């Protein structure tokens, strides 16, 4: 029998929700990561980060180790820049992500950022993957320039072997014959991945297109394709950027993008966590939670027929005081763990259990 892979739905049927610094990614939670391609100076990084946070991003990107095609291009601030990221995360109270290229930088980077990124060029750098797998920080794993779905998923497996489940896949376009865009975005891989893996999948329209005018439409397409987030390059002055200026949004275009995607996120019932909410947003979330509560109660009630069948076959009474006592103990413990009043939980479960018992009695009698 073949081994069940940790990334697979077989291994874990429910979608993984990565939790990092007040931000949730996966399931119904949508991430908006934005910021400069490279951190060029404290001012450029901090000012851009403040802008994207204000607009509604919940993760700040910005790299200090840069994989550049030419050795003469700006290579990034290196380890020196890591402190800037840590300070910014703390000062703005926001999650941060940065890329690592060298296995020797994993540990120190993990101590300074919330999420590590493994870039497209390193997706199959197995020494890097192995070193990263020893860390328990969430990892964004970008798709290799010409990686197949299996190569990508198995690279994710490398990261998961030591038990880290906080892996986020990032589709950033692949190399094809077409040169009309920097890469060719493979949107259809998102629903396909959703069938094969429980891991969240985000999309990077900046590196996929190389063209800032395409970022908004492609972001919208990513949302309706069921992506769990977007990763976008924003620069407070893109024309002066040391790296990837043509695919970086200026502040006003980023604000516009957020306004444009809001109704689509609403339509897809996706939530962006870790940002300041207005009353309307809080109410929208309350409505979602209420709908979930009703769904869960329905799931519980739908178990009644199976329960009746087993109980009547085996002459088990509907009311079993010992079972109810055990359940009640468990609910009270969970109430405490979740900081909810035990009386409230007791009342709710009394109602649910009474209802289930009476449904069973009606059917059996
Ligand atoms: C990046 O996100 O800065 C980057 C280099 O992207 P990619 O690895 O997708 O080319
Ligand atoms: Mn870039």
Which SSEs are present, and which pair or pack?
Blueprint: E1 18-20, E2 23-25, E3 31-35, H1 42-55, E4 59-61, H2 82-92, E5 95-99, H3 106-110, E6 115-118, H4 126-133, E7 139-142, H5 149-160, E8 167-171, H6 189-196, E9 201-203, H7 205-209, H8 215-224, E10 229-233, H9 251-267, H10 279-301, H11 304-313, H12 321-337, H13 342-364
Parallel strand pairs: 3-4, 3-10, 4-5, 5-6, 6-7, 7-8, 8-9, 9-10
Antiparallel strand pairs: 1-2
Helix pairs in contact: 1-9, 4-5, 8-9, 11-13, 12-13
The protein binds phosphoenolpyruvate and manganese (II) ion.
Residues 37, 207, 233, 243-244 line the site of manganese (II) ion.
Explain what the structure shows.
- The mean pLDDT is 96.
- Strand 5 (95-99), helix 3 and strand 6 form a beta-alpha-beta unit.
- This protein has 365 residues and is of the alpha/beta class.
- The chain folds into 2 domains: 18-267, TIM Barrel (Alpha-Beta Barrel); 303-364, Up-down Bundle (Chorismate Mutase Domain, subunit A), CATH 1.20.59.
- The chain has helices spanning 42-55, 82-92, 106-110, 126-133, 149-160, 189-196, 205-209, 215-224, 251-267, 279-301, 304-313, 321-337, 342-364, and strands at residues 18-20, 23-25, 31-35, 59-61, 95-99, 115-118, 139-142, 167-171, 201-203, 229-233.
- The protein has an 8-stranded parallel beta barrel, surrounded by 6 helices. It has a two-stranded antiparallel sheet with strand order 1-2.
- It contains 13 helices and 10 strands.
- The structure holds phosphoenolpyruvate (PEP) and manganese (II) ion.
- Phosphoenolpyruvate (PEP) binds at residues 37, 63, 67, 99, 119-121, 142, 172, 204, 207.
């Amino acid at each position: 029998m073949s081994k069940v892979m940790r990334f697979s739905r077989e291994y874990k049927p429910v979608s993984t929700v990565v939790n990092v610094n007040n931000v949730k990614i996966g399931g119904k939670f949508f991430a908006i990561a934005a910021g400069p391609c490279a951190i060029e100076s404290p001012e450029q990084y901090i000012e851009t980060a403040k802008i994207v946070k204000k607009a509604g991003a919940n993760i700040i990107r910005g790299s200090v180790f840069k994989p550049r095609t030419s050795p003469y291009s700006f290579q990034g601030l290196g380890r020196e820049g890591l402190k800037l990221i840590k300070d910014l995360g703390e000062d703005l109270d926001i999650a941060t992500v940065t890329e690592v290229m060298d296995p020797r930088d994993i540990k120190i980077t993990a101590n300074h950022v919330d999420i590590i990124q493994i870039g497209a060029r390193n997706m199959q750098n197995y020494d890097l993957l192995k070193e990263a797998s020893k860390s328990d920080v969430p990892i964004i794993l970008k798709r290799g320039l010409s990686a197949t779905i299996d190569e990508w998923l198995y690279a994710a497996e490398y990261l998961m072997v030591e038990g880290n489940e906080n892996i986020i896949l990032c589709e950033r376009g692949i190399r094809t014959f077409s040169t009309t865009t920097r890469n060719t975005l493979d949107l259809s891989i998102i629903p396909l991945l959703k069938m094969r893996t429980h891991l969240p999948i985000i999309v990077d329209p900046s590196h996929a297109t190389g063209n800032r005018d395409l970022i908004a439409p492609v972001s919208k397409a990513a949302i309706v394709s069921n992506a769990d987030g977007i990763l976008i390059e924003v620069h407070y002055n893109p024309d002066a950027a040391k790296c990837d200026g043509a695919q970086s949004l200026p502040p006003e275009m980023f604000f516009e993008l957020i306004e444009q995607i809001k109704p689509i996120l609403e339509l897809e019932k996706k939530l962006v966590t870790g940002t300041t909410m207005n009353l309307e947003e809080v109410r929208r979330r309350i409505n979602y939670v209420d709908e979930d509560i009703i769904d869960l109660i329905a799931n519980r009630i739908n178990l009644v027929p199976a329960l009746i069948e087993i109980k009547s076959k085996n002459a088990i009474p509907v009311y079993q005081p010992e079972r109810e006592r055990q359940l009640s103990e468990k609910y009270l413990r969970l109430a405490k763990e979740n900081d909810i009043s035990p009386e409230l939980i007791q009342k709710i479960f009394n109602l649910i259990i009474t209802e289930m018992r009476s449904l069973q009695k009606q059917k059996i009698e």
